[in-house]
Structures are given as structure tokens and as C-alpha cells.
Write a structure and sequence with these properties.
The chain is mostly beta strands. Helix content is about 0%, strand content about 50%. Strands 2, 4, 7, 8, 10, 11 and 12 form a seven-stranded mixed β-sheet that branches. The protein has a five-stranded antiparallel β-sheet with strand order 1-3-9-5-6, with no helix packed on it. The radius of gyration is 16 Å and the shape is globular. About 25% of the residues are buried.
């Protein structure tokens, strides 16, 4: 994973920050559906904030993935919860052949009325055909002020 400064430092209502995720398949098998999944814990908003950091559209964060085919940014799922979600809840993902490398671009933005604080973004690599992690998850440092 790569981002400027090695972490995301967001400002509520500010510009999105980009980062990349590089998938390298050194495995002995091809993946038909390998998904990059994102989750972070709930942040509690400052006094007077209209919204806390619950799941769904009111989470206070917008994650997008760059779609190379269309040249546009598209919404991506960011699960905001304090417990790990079951891997069976994930669907989709793209192919990754044995010994192949794929780089995906993402950007994360904090909404103007979202919460502040610090919690890492957990990035998981899910083989959605088998409901298993294809590799150990990694943490991307994050704070919102």
C-alpha cells in the first residue's frame, strides 16, 4: 500500500487523499474473484457534530476506486463498524493470475459534518469464491481533524 506520508490525514470537508493498493499473487493458484475490502472502527464526533461515525451513508467518509476502463472514480464500500464482518458478506472482485500484479487506486474523503479522530483503515484481501482471506490484512494509518 502506498500513500503520501505513509498514512491518510484528512480534513473534514477537505480534499480526498489518494492511495494505491498493490496485489501480488505469488500463490500457486489463480484467483477468479479477489476483492480489496476496507473497514474502520466508528469514530465518535466532536460535541456539536451532527453525525457520528456509524455505518452506511452517514459514516462521515467517502471511499472511491478509480475505474481505468471509464477513467472515472466510482464509489467503493467502506465498512464502518467496531467488529469484524464475516468474509461471506463480500462479493465481487477481479481476477489475479498466479505471479500477476495488479495496482488499484483509491481515494478517501471526510465529509464536512463527519467525526474526527484517529483509527486505522483495515485493508483485507478476500477470495470471494472461498470466503477466505488470500493474504494477511494490512493497516493504513488514518486521522481526521
Amino acid at each position: 500500500m502506498e500513500t503520501r506520508g505513509g498514512r491518510l490525514t484528512l480534513v473534514r470537508g477537505g480534499a480526498a487523499q489518494e492511495f494505491t493498493v498493490t496485489l501480488r499473487n505469488g500463490n500457486s493458484a489463480d484467483y477468479r474473484h479477489l476483492l480489496v475490502a476496507f473497514q474502520m472502527e466508528v469514530l465518535v464526533g466532536e460535541p456539536g457534530d451532527r453525525r457520528g461515525g456509524g455505518a452506511g451513508p452517514g459514516s462521515g467518509f467517502l471511499l472511491e476506486r478509480f475505474d481505468r476502463a471509464s477513467g472515472t472514480w466510482r464509489p467503493a464500500e467502506l465498512r464502518v463498524a467496531n467488529d469484524a464482518g464475516p468474509l461471506s458478506q463480500y462479493a465481487g472482485g477481479g481476477p489475479l493470475a498466479r505471479d500477476a500484479v495488479r495496482v488499484e487506486r483509491y481515494r478517501l474523503r471526510a465529509t464536512a459534518d463527519g467525526p474526527t479522530g484517529s483509527t486505522p483503515v483495515v485493508v483485507s484481501f478476500v477470495d470471494t469464491d472461498t470466503d477466505r482471506e488470500a493474504a494477511a490484512h494490512v493497516l493504513l494509518g488514518h486521522s481526521t481533524g
